[in-house]
Input
Amino acid sequence: MRGPHNIIRLIRTGATLERTGAMNVVLDAFEAPPALRFVAKALGKPFQWLGYQGDPSMPPATRALTALGPAYIKFGQVLSTRPDVVGDELAVQLRVLQDKLPPFPVGQAKAEVEKELGQPIDTIFSVFSEPVAAASIAQVHKAELADGGDSVAVKVLRPGIEKAFKKDVDAFYFAARIVEIFAPGGRRLRPIEVIEHFDGVVQGELDLRLESSAAGEFAANTKDDTGFALPKIRWEYSARRVMTLEWADGVPMGENEAIDAAGHDRVDLSERVLKLFLLHALRDGYFHADMHQGNLKVAPNGDIIAYDFGIMGHIDEYTRRVYAEILFGFIRKDYKRVAEVHFEAGYVPADKDVDEFARALRAVGEPIFGMDASKISMGRLLSYLFEVTERFGMETRTELILLQRTMVVVEGVARSLNPNINIWQVASPIVTDYIQKSIGPKAIVTDLYKTARVLTRFGPRLPGLVEAALIAQSNPQPEKRRGFWRWIALAGLVGLLAGGGVALLIEALA
Output
């Protein structure tokens, strides 16, 4: 059953790409080998009449994906975060993809809310508006709670969207396998991995409980951030297909005239939006990865309000420290140290030449730092850095590509507010402060404390583990006796950590 559906869907996809003129654009962006080009053309050219025409005013790639429907629109948006896969030119085109679609009737939305929340809608909301925004996966209604009159935004998934997405995602996996079979050279594009990444993003957006959870975690991390606010999630009125949160009153971030009329300082807003993003990425390792102007407002009191938490970025603490030190090295123009950090972290193979790598990094940094302050871009720096590291054998890391893409978007928001913003001048204090807190004696003491907390969990088990080790030592079998020495080594490691931790603590407090 799936096979025929996937084949039909792929033929229609190929036909639409041909009819809209996007086929060659896509194949060139992926640097498709001849065998893959032949298969793609065979699936599209003879069946052009089956393809969708789309909006002729759009660029070919966005025209084709928009015509093919919600799953393809969302796929294009995800690919816009992966210039390592589709190339910079197509990634830029895909960033303008808008997933605004005709809304579904308010009656259907009310029925979905009643089904999910298990009670008549009139007992929950005294007012429930027509859709105020409609996208590929869900639409939003403004409502008022019946038990207090508070204004809220109610996000409701489109009816049947899960089934529709599953069919298209199955076709995407099928297409990825065709690429691997008919074009072994195309495996460098990692087609299955790309579809798995997309599948994961979509599954997260198709369960609004996960978006609510993301909003809750983000709010907990940022509750003390001055000049930043998030609408509060109303968990009692949220479920898998419905998400309710406070209504955010404010001026849309993209409307400069309205911002000026409201008396807000655009220079301050431009610096604050950039600082907040860097703070969230470095301090928390958890950042809003879709911070375009459509997801930001300026509250009457001047706070920046963020909403729509379907795409969030996560970077582990170790990677944050590494990239903070890399950025810090670029800020100081210490290219040798930046190169050494890459080698120390294992990002670049040890058989490469560190001095040659440092020279390549200088070629990245110097042209950027030589620019006028208003044109310096951290997003461009990260993009060039990834190109160089890839040449030296570093594997692409999805979370860092997402960071770079979001950095570009945030810089765009900041420059739209203040075209003369000096990105490095604004970023330097945030990066420097993070370096001071995450690298040095205090950070080492904190790490040792965290390690000790993990080890203490095994305290109640230590007597039994020691007894097992002693029994293993008396056992004549060699493999059992080796277990004894492993425990002796572990005990030595614990003692070393404890002793070193005490010494560092004394030094730090002296």
Observations:
- The chain has four domains: 2-99+162-205, 105-158+207-247, 249-439, 441-509.
- The chain is about 60% helix and 10% strand.
- Residues 478-509 form the longest helix (32 residues).
